[in-house]
Amino acid sequence: MDINEMIDMYMEDGLTRELAAARVCQDVVLKAISIGPLNRNVSLNSRHINWERA
Fold first, then answer.
1. Which residues, other chains included, contact 10 with Cβ-Cβ below 8 Å and sequence gap of 6+?
2. Which of 13, 15, 37, 51 could form a disulfide with 19 if both were Cys (CB 3.0 to 4.6 A apart)?
3. What DSSP character marks residue 9?
4. How far apart, in whole angstroms, are the C-alpha atoms of residue 12 and residue 52?
5. With 0-12 CB in 10 A as exposed, 13-18 as middle and 19+ as buried, what is 7?
6. Phi-psi region of 3 (alpha: psi -120 to 50; beta: other; left: phi over 0)
């Protein structure tokens, strides 16, 4: 699935194109964090991402 397909999927759920693109961006960043080497050193909240050096 490419990014445009992901945006279309969210748009089918009722999001505008802008909100769908933002949601896909969020999904990509969270996936990158989850598979990255510092995934155990990251905490998320609604406003920002914090990390600590291992």
1. 19, 20, 23, 24
2. 15
3. H
4. 38
5. buried
6. alpha
This prediction's pTM: 0.75
**At 37, which amino acid appears?**
P
Q: What Å distances lie between residue 49 and 4, 42, 44, CA to CA?
A: 26, 7, 5
The burial class, CB within 10 Å (0-12 / 13-18 / 19+), for 15 is middle
Helix (H), strand (E) at residue 3: helix 3-12
C-alpha–C-alpha distance, residues 35 and 26, integer Å: 14
